[in-house]
Amino acid sequence: MTTTVSAYAAPSATGPLAPTTIERRDVGPRDVRIEIRYAGICHSDIHTARGEWGPVDWPIVVGHEIAGVVAEIGTEVTKHAVGDRVGVGCMVGSCRECEACRDGEEQYCTGNGTIAGMVGTYGGTDPADGRPTAGGYSQQIVVDEHFVLRIPDGLELDVAAPLLCAGITTYSPLNHWGAGPGTKVAVIGLGGLGHMAVQIAAAKGCEVTVLSQSLKKQEDGLRLGASAYHATSDPDTFRQLAGSFDLIINTVSANLDLDAHMGLLRRNGTLVEVGAPENPMSVRAFSLIPARRSLAGSNIGGIAETQEMLDFCAEHGIAAQVEVIRAEQVNEAWERVVASDVRYRFVIDTSTLPTAPAPVS
Fold first, then answer.
1. Vertex 266, ends 264 and 270: CA angle to 5°?
2. What CA–CA distance (Å, rounded) separates 324 from 303?
3. Can you give the pLDDT at residue 171?
4. N or C: which end of the chain has fewer CB within 10 A?
5. Number of helices (H) and strands (E), helices first, in the chain?
6. SS (H, E, C) 121-174
């Protein structure tokens, strides 16, 4: 048995999203059924649905910033109860056996022969029934309790939803590279990811600088916790800030001049990629060698770390800056995301999803 729910799906790489219905599986012993209240729009949704990161099985329902309320639990569920405020991020499964999973880093799961690796919230294969996973642009979702997060009372559901991707994507590298008091951090880009990185780094006690193409968001950056804001379109920025930072978090998905940005790092500094350009990046060896600089990447965070992030944000009054939209505005919102015309995350009010007559074909 399955449950039919309303959703919005991308029918192809080029077609606009359209209302549809999808099937959600019945709740198993360790499953949680969530009534989705809000779904954040991440640029990854757009890259995926438009085939910019590789082949896609269309139609696809995206969305991996999910906040809602528990509607039903399985007989063996112990972490959650009906009525709990919960969230789901970028993954809904992993092998739970490999070294990465045992270390609490399910996002780096290497598989166990049955499950190939981390199971994405959309575009993956659900280990429970072998069907394609479908994301948060929908009324409900059924997820193994291990991958369901508790949303603290101090966070409203609409502003909590983007934390399940944008929040953990920036919190995890700040954690891993030991950012804290005395750490000089630069954040490249003040968008959905960047505005979270600034708030989190500032709350950790770092000295935060925003590096952006222009100064048009300078007031916002300083309000969110940055102590300085510089335009990378100004060549003087790279001369003035040479050798300044211990850690740089690059949140943008555009290809940058990495050699110029590597020059902003101090000795032993690291530039971490969390944005994912569709084209290959290049960097010269001598941008790294003379000061023992590193170029690294980071992928979301594990379940335990994601819960830690949610609790940290609630404790420090950190939330995503959102624009809540109705479901029928999603195509316009996607175009505005591509044009960087949002401050700083669109969130779909899923109560506005229409009931569609039939699945997209």
1. 80
2. 26
3. 98
4. N
5. 10, 17
6. CCCCECCCCCCECCCCCECEEEEEHHHCEECCCCCCHHHHHHHHCHHHHHHHHH
Q: ∠ CA(237), CA(242), CA(246), 5° rounding?
A: 115
Model confidence pLDDT, tens digit, residues 290-301: 999 999 999 999
Tokens of 263: 């020059």
Output phi, psi for 106, to 5 deg: -60, -25
Residue 310, SS3 per DSSP:
helix
Do 169-297 and 2-165+301-352 have the same topology in CATH?
no
pTM as predicted = 0.95
> How many percent of the chain have pLDDT more than 70?
98
Burial class (CB in 10 A: 0-12, 13-18, 19+), 279: exposed
Q: What angle do CA 310, 24, 107 make, to 5 degrees?
A: 40
pLDDT tier, 279 (very low <50, low <70, confident <90, very high otherwise): confident
Q: Extract the tokens encoding 19.
A: 């209302």
CATH homologous superfamily of 2-165+301-352: Medium-chain alcohol dehydrogenases, catalytic domain (3.90.180.10)
Q: What are phi and psi of 147, to 5 degrees?
A: -100, 15
Q: Which of 31, 37, 120, 35 is nearest to 80 (CA)?
A: 31
Separation between Cα atoms, residue 250 and residue 199, nearest integer Å: 15
- Report domain extents, the chain: 2-165+301-352, 169-297
**3-state class (DSSP) for residue 107:** helix
Under DSSP, the state recorded for 281 is: P
Element (H, E) at 335: helix 330-338
pLDDT tens sequence across 204-262: 999 999 999 999 999 999 999 999 999 999 999 999 999 999 999 999 988 899 999 99
List all residues 6 or more positions away from 86 whose beta carbon is below 8 Å from its beta carbon: 32, 34, 67, 68, 69, 70, 80, 148, 149, 150, 151
**SS3 state at 286:** helix
